[in-house]
Amino acid sequence: MVFEWMDTDLWQLPSKPFRSGSELPRTVARSILEALAVFDGEEGVHTDVNPNNVFLSGANSPSPVVKLGDLGNCKFLAAEPTSSMVQ
């Protein structure tokens, strides 16, 4: 298990300063989609994408860090039994 300190989550971040002329919404959307693409490539799915699980650091900086967390409910197809495995 790895822990990394992030400044806040998307739920706690006030939205008003980022509504107009900010790149943050685009950065957040791109980061979440990239994370979900990684899951898809591993035949998995994150089943709990919500603002509480989107973590940010440096929201006001030129290059904010956005990470998708709470992977406890992730599902992977490889973990599911296939019909050839069931007897």
Q: What's the helix and strand layout?
A:
Blueprint: E1 8-9, H1 24-41, E2 44-45, E3 54-57, E4 65-68, E5 75-76
Antiparallel strand pairs: 1-3, 2-5, 3-4
Describe the protein's architecture and organization:
The structure is a single chain. The chain has 87 residues and is an alpha+beta fold. The protein has a single domain, classed as Transferase(Phosphotransferase) domain 1 (Transferase(Phosphotransferase), domain 1), CATH 1.10.510. It is built from one helix and five strands, in the order βαββββ. Strands 1-3-4 form a three-stranded antiparallel beta sheet. The C terminus is likely disordered.
What key attributes describe this structure?
87 residues; alpha+beta; Transferase(Phosphotransferase), domain 1; two-stranded antiparallel ribbon; 5 strands; elongated; disordered C terminus
The average pLDDT is: 85
CATH superfamily: Transferase(Phosphotransferase) domain 1
Sequence of secondary-structure elements: EHEEEE
Biggest sheet architecture: 3 strands, antiparallel
The level of helicity is 10-25%
- What fraction of residues sit in β-strands? 15-25%
Multimeric organization: single chain
Question: What best-fitting shape do the alpha-carbon axes yield?
Answer: elongated
Q: Give the total of beta strands.
A: 5
Task: Find the CATH topology.
Answer: Transferase(Phosphotransferase), domain 1
CATH class: Mainly Alpha
Number of helices: 1
- The count of domains is 1
Return Rg in Å.
16 Å
